[in-house]
Amino acid sequence: MVKHERHIETDILIVGGGSAGCMAAIRAKEIAPDLRVAVMEKGDLMYSGCIAMGMDALNIVAIPGFTSPELYLEATTLACEGVVDGGPSLEMAARSWELLKKLEAWGVHFPMKNGKYETLQVHPKGEFLVTMKEPDLKKIIARRVYDMGCRVINRTMAFELMMEGDRVAGVLGYNVRTGELVICRAKAVIICSGGLARFSLPNSGYLYGVYDFPGNTGDGWAMSYRAGAELTGMEYTTCYCIIKDIGAPLLYITLTRGAQALNGLGKPIEGGHISIKTLVQEYADGRGPVFMRLKHLPEEKIQEIEDILFTTERPVMERFFKGRGIDFRKTDIELYNTEHFLCSGHGQAGLVVNQVGETNLRGLLAAGDAACVARGHLTGAFAFGEAAADRAAEICRSEQRASPEAAGVDGARRKLAGIFKMDGPVDPHQFEYKVRRLIGDYLVPPKNEIKLKLGLEWMDRFATMLDSTVRVTDPHWASKILEIESIIDTATLSGCASLARTESRWGYWHYRTDYPQRNDDEWVRHVVLSKGDEQRRPRVTLRDIDLLPLQQGLWPAAAP
Fold first, then answer.
1. What are 131-141's pLDDT values in tens digits?
2. Partners of 57 in the beta sheet?
3. Element containing residue 428 per DSSP (H, E)
4. Is beta strand 241-243 parallel, antiparallel or unpaired with respect to 333-337?
5. Nearest-5° angle of CA 37, CA 352, CA 241?
6. Bond preceding residue 446 cis, omega within 30 of 0
7. Is 467 helix (H, G, I), strand (E, B) or coil?
8. Cis omega before residue 475 (within 30°)?
9. Per-residue pLDDT at 1
10. Which fold has domain 5-54+136-237+341-406?
């Protein structure tokens, strides 16, 4: 049984202390310093999230007089192949310039040349990427959270929403080191806990050797879904083509500075706009391996690339290349497809939100990779962290505190007590490996109906087997059970969404061999999932795109 409990009351509770969560906390205190703001973080706020250290770019900035939010909306409509609501994406771009200036005021470094920010084109239209050179980005924003007077609840994994009728009343958390149950009441809850990084297995076979932050296991999605929230884009099973065996990004840093992409035939990869999707498709079409060539570049340009790679986002790359004996002046860099993962920052999976981050549940908002603001990258995390905080503050001013239903808290106590009694023959890591191996076998591209249904059958089987198969010996292993449950539940949602979208779209990321063609006549729409009456199966709804006038005619008229 649970021996220790902690009760916390706050006004705004933010689940997840990554980029979106930190920005939401800071913004809430900026506009409403009298409100109590708390951040519940599974790891340690100072180093958690997809940006655990530094960053080399703010991917989406509409610089006045140079680009515009409207042009960005055109670009992302093309990149998302028409499946993107206009309101949230336009709101993100509209906030981006002031966001950059705010970060700059905090000491974040954006290089300039001749009095102008260094910009690069990585979208189908416009130069929206502004280069950044800030190895301490996460420390800067994390320290600001503390300085603003926010309460930080570290090492605590949110696993269930508390409800009062149709309204969110708080969150139940679990301390991953002590086993303590944390009962946190709040007027507004913002889900910023990322997507699902631990979906299929990476080629290395390491459970946590993934491209995105391995702490992201779909927890926020799973508990929001159980409470009645809607999700969309779960069929968008993303993978990236990046540095083989280390899973570190390279494309934007190199291609935009003159590097050349080569396929396994030794031929340059041609195309007007070479993207991650282009490189992934080379592997899918049997033209791998893919390489990035820098040796033709001037020495000063190679040094510029090395300076970015070795000092900013993942400094470990310098040791990696040295250990492999790779000198960019002599050797091409091999790229490889990552594991598949789900998120909105690099894809389109997430909770359905409006332009201020609200979900369909009263008092529940979302930002960052947890919210479906398609392909929002770091800008999306920061901008919607702010937007959600703005709305959460308004909710706190107008709503009375809800009283959580006792049944939910009692159910959480019983759940944790049951986990601590688990005494099966298999440890959690072995079980997770099997789950994710089968996800890779059945729920990722190339997809078809038979594969997807087999994958769903396996997820059902794993959900049933978990209690009797896995053993728990300490509080940390108990947290792994909660994570595995989230992985299984989220994989089930993804499989159901993939079954529903009877076409292929977004290149390889939703490629169905039984429906190999893109069908713009019927499928420029959202697949929305919500809790249904059938056990372990969501209700599937098809919803039209919320188009703004300037998006009219962009897709499929401008489709490549």
1. 999 999 999 99
2. 131
3. helix 428-442
4. antiparallel
5. 100
6. yes
7. helix
8. no
9. 52
10. FAD/NAD(P)-binding domain (3.50.50)
Q: Which residue has the tokens 């986002």?
A: 313
Secondary structure of the chain: what % helix, strand, coil (to 5)? 40, 20, 40
122, 132, 139, 221, 317 from 260: Cα distances, Å: 15, 22, 34, 38, 20
Long-range contacts of 458-461 (CB under 8 A, 24+ apart): 459/435, 459/488, 459/491, 459/492, 459/495, 459/536, 460/492, 460/536
**Position of tokens 């909710």?**
395
Tell me the per-residue pLDDT of 119-134, one tens digit each, with 9 for 90 and over. Answer: 999 999 999 999 999 9
Give the residue-averaged pLDDT of 302-315: 91
Tell me the CATH number of domain 407-544, given options 1.10.10.10, 3.40.190.10, 1.20.58.100, 3.40.47.10. Answer: 1.20.58.100
370-412 pLDDT, tens digit per residue, is 999 999 999 999 999 999 999 999 999 998 887 888 889 999 9
Q: What is the mean pLDDT of residues 282-287?
A: 93
Q: 440, exposed or middle or buried, with CB in 10 Å at 0-12, 13-18, 19+?
A: middle
* Domain boundaries defined on the chain: 5-54+136-237+341-406, 241-337, 407-544
Q: Is the pTM of this model over 0.90?
A: yes
Kindly report the CATH class assigned to 241-337.
alpha beta
DSSP state letters, 280-318: HHHHHTT---EEEE-TTS-HHHHHHHHHHHHHTS-THHH
- 364-366 β-sheet, strand order: 151-153, 37-40, 12-15, 188-191, 364-366
Give the position of tokens 């909306």. 73
d(CA 325, CA 249): 19
User: Which residues, 6 or more positions from 402, have their beta carbon under 8 angstroms from its beta carbon?
Assistant: 164, 167, 168, 169, 170, 185, 187, 363
* Three-state secondary-structure class, residue 189: strand
- Residue 559's pLDDT band, with cuts at 50, 70 and 90, is low
Q: How does the average pLDDT of the chain come out, rounded?
A: 96
- 504, pLDDT greater than 70: yes
Check if the beta carbon of residue 538 is closer than 8 Å to that of residue 531.
yes
Q: Is the peptide bond before 556 cis (omega within 30 degrees of 0)?
A: yes
pLDDT (average), residues 90-112: 98
Q: pLDDT tens digits for 210-238?
A: 999 999 999 999 999 999 999 999 999 99
pLDDT tens digits for range 19-58: 999 999 999 999 999 999 999 999 999 999 999 999 999 9
At 377 the three-state DSSP class reads helix
Identity of the amino acid at 34: D
